[in-house]
Amino acid sequence: MALGTEQENRIYFRGGGVVLVQNQEIILQSFPKKIRSLGLKHALSSKVKNDELIVLDEAKLSSPKTKDFYQKLKIKN
Length: 77
Prior knowledge:
Blueprint: H1 33-49, H2 66-76
């Protein structure tokens, strides 16, 4: 609610607003989809190369606890 000469400065932008920008110019850079997928491919292939990737078809647990799941993973490795 504005009173008198007071103005409301509400920012309704997706992702929030930017306060006190130096050069009044916001430059957002994002990677192209092909480069993002290439990065994911390289990350996963390096995990496979170092035997750090575990693929599960299904996980049957008696109780939904992280401790039990971790114990089963340790037994399999």
